[in-house]
Amino acid sequence: MPILLAPDKFRGSLSAAEACAAMEAGIRLVLPDAQVTALPMADGGEGTAELLTQVTKGIWHTAFVNNPLFKLIEAGFGLSTDGQTAFIDSAAAAGLALLAAPERDTTLATTYGLGQLIEQAIAGGAKTVVLGLGGSATTDGGTGLAAALGWQFLNAAGQTFTPTGGTLIEIAQIIPPASPLPVRLRVACDVQNPLYGPTGAAMLFAPQKGATPVQVSQLDKGLRHLDQLMQQQLGMTHAAIPGAGAAGGLGYGLITFLGATLEPGVDVVLDAVAFDEHLSGASLVLTGEGKLDGQTAQGKLIAGICRRAGKSGVPVVALCGTLTLAPEEIQDLGLLGAFSVLNRPQQLAEAVLTAADDLRATTFNVMRLLRTYASLRL
C-alpha cells in the first residue's frame, strides 16, 4: 500500500519532518512492509525556505545582509541541487522577529536586506526564486528591496536615498535600472489585501508592527504617494492587485519592481516539492498540522493537498492537535476523515511533550481501521 505523508509542522511541538517520523512509526505497527514516502510540508510562511531546501536535497547558504534597521546580520537561503532555484523567506532579512520589541518601528524599517539576499541567490546561479512572504517588520512598499537591486529613488533635492515606510512621501523621482533582473520570481502569498486604504498594508497590518495611529496614517499616505508616482512617471499601477498589501506592501514591490507573480502559497510549495509526482501511484495521503479550523479551508496547505489529491482520486486523512471543523466542513474540504491526536485532558505543556507519541498512536488507529475496512471489502 503506497502511502504519502505530507504534514505541515505541529506548531510548538513537532516539525514537519518529526511529524512524518511519528506517522511512519504508527503505520509500521500495522503495515510493516508498507511503501511510505515522507514529504514534510510547509505553508509558505517562515521556515518554508529551509524546509524546501531540505526536501529537494538542496544546499543552504548564508550571506551578510542588512536587517530591517540596516544593521548587518547573517541570513540564509537555499539553492536546489542544480543551482537553478533559490528558496528564500522574506522574514530572513525583513522579519519582525529579527528586532527586539523596543526596536520595532515600521516607519524606519526596510526590505533592503531582502534585495541583497535575492542578489546573492542570483550570483549563485539561480534562475528562479521561490519567495515566501510573511512576518515582515516593514511597510516600505518593497522600495528597499528595489533599491538594493538597482532602482533609484530621488528626493526633491535630486539626492538618491533608500526609502523606508516613513520616508516614502519624500520620493520625488523613480528611476528603473538599465535592465531587468535575469530571474523569475514565484511569490507565495496568501494575503489578498490591496496596497493602501482601509484594508491596505498600513491600516490593517502596521499596528501589529508597533505603529501608532498617527504613523499608520503617515504610512498609508506614503504608499499612496508611491503608487501615484509609479503611475505618473512609469505608467504602471498595481495597488489594487490582491496581495499588493502583503508584508507591508512588499507584494506590490515585487510585482512592480521585479515583475513577480503572486501565487497561493500552497501551490508554490506543492510545486516546489513536486507533490503531484509523489502523489502519482499513492493509495493514501496522510497530512496534518497543529490545528484544523476555519482557516484550513481558506486556501491553506491541507485544502491544497485535498484539491490535488481529489483530482487523482487519492483519499486524504488529516491528523491534528486541535480540531474545530464541523463534519460538514471536513466533508466539503475533501477529507476522508480528520482526527485529533489529543486523547485525554491535558495542559498545553504536556500535549507538546507527548505530541510524537500521540500522533504515532492515532496514526496506528487510523491505519488499523483502514486495513480492516479494506479486508472486509474483499
UniProtKB/TrEMBL annotation:
GO biological process, one term: organic acid phosphorylation
Keywords tagged on the record: Kinase, Transferase
Record-level Gene Ontology MF annotations: glycerate kinase activity
Signal peptide residues on this chain, from the entry's feature table: none
Top-rank taxon: Bacteria
Pfam (any one): Gly_kinase
InterPro entries from the UniProt entry: Glyc_kinase_flavodox-like_fold, Glycerate_kinase, Glycerate_kinase_RE-like, Glycerate_kinase_sf
Gene3D superfamilies linked to this entry: Glycerate kinase, domain 1 (3.40.50.10350), Glycerate kinase, domain 2 (3.90.1510.10)
Family: Belongs to the glycerate kinase type-1 family.
Protein name: Glycerate kinase
Organism of derivation: Fibrella aquatilis
